[in-house]
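so the lab meeting is tmrw and i was supposed to have these ready like two days ago... anyway. pasting both below. for each one the top line is the aa sequence and the line under it is the C-alpha cells. i havent really looked at them closely yet so no promises
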Amino acid sequence: MSEPEGPPAGAVPVLDKPAEDVPERPRASAEHRFWSARRTPAAVVAVLLVVVAGAFLYDVTAVRAHRPAMAWRRALARQLAERPLDDVWVQVGAGVAAALGLWLVLLAVTPGLRHVLPMSRPRPDVRAGLHRDAAGLVLRDRAMEIAGVQSARVRVRRRRADVRAVCHFRDLDDVHADLDTVLTDAIRGLGLARPPRLSVHVRRPGKKG
C-alpha cells in the first residue's frame, strides 16, 4: 500500500480561518480639528463672576442685617432707574456686553488650536495631530533636496501649503516641476486627514515674487 503523498518541497501550508475571525482593517474616518481647553478665558470669566456675585451677595446680606446698602449699589440702581434707553452710556454698555457675549459664544462653538493639523486615524482609539511648523519644516527639508534650490520658505495653513523657493541654477520650470512632484509626495507622506493644497513659487535670487 502506497503512503499518501505529502506537500511538495518548499510549499507553505495554509490554514483555513473562519471569515469572522479575520480582523478587518479599520476605515479612516473624517477627522475634525482638536478642541482647545480655553483655560485663560474660562478662568477670567470665572474670576469676574465670583467677584461680582460675591459683592452683590455681601451687600444683600448687609441689607438683610439692617445695615445700609453700599453706595455703589445705590448709585447703580439710581442710574439704571433714571437713565433712558437711548442714553449714550447705556448703549455703549449694552454694546460692550453684547460684544463680550458674542466673543464667549464664539469661543464655545469653535474648536481652536488652528496650529494643529489632524492626522488620519488608522485605529479608532488613536488620534494624532501635527503642528503646522513641523509640517512646514518637513516640506522645507524636502524642497532643499531639489537640485538648484538655494533657499525655501514654507508656510502651512489649514487648506494650503505655500512654498516659495529661490533657484540659483537650472531652469525655473524644471525646478518647479520637481518641487511639485517631491512636495506632493511629501504632503501625502505626512498622513494628514485633510492634506493641504500645494502652491509653489520659484524665482531667481534678488527678484521678489
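ok protien two:
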Amino acid sequence: MTPGLMTPEIFWLTLTVILTGLLWVPYVLNRTAVRGIGGAMANPSRTDKPHAEWATRLMFAHDNAVENLIVFAPLVLILAQIDYSTKWTVYACAVYFWSRVVHLIVYALGLPVFRTLAFLVGFFAQVVLALAIFQIV
C-alpha cells in the first residue's frame, strides 16, 4: 500500500466507522424533542418519557452496529497488516457496509425479517474476511 493511500477495504471500514459513530444523532434528537434539552442530558430514569418507537429501535441498531464493528474492524486491519487484498475482500467490505445501512433502516422501520436478513448478509461478509486472512478466498 502506498503511503497516504488507503486500500478499498480500509475505505469501507472508514465509512462503516463514520456511520456507526453517527447513529446516535437521530435518536438523541428524538430524545431531545420528547424530553427537552434538560431531559435529554439528565441521567436515565424509570419515569422518563419514552422515545418514539423508531428511535428506540435505532438505539438497538446502534448497539448492534457497535457490537459487529468489534469483529469487522480487526478483520479488515489484519488483512491490511498482512497486505492481502482480493476482489472478494473488497466486495465483502462493501457488502458489509451496505448491509449495515440496510440493517439500520429496516430496524428503525420495524421490519424484523428484513433486519435479520441484513444482519446475516453482514455476518457472511465477515466470514469471507476471516477466510481471506487464511487465504482461503
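from a quick look at the 2nd one: The mean pLDDT is 94. Residues 79 and 85 are 7 Å apart (CA to CA). will dig more after coffe
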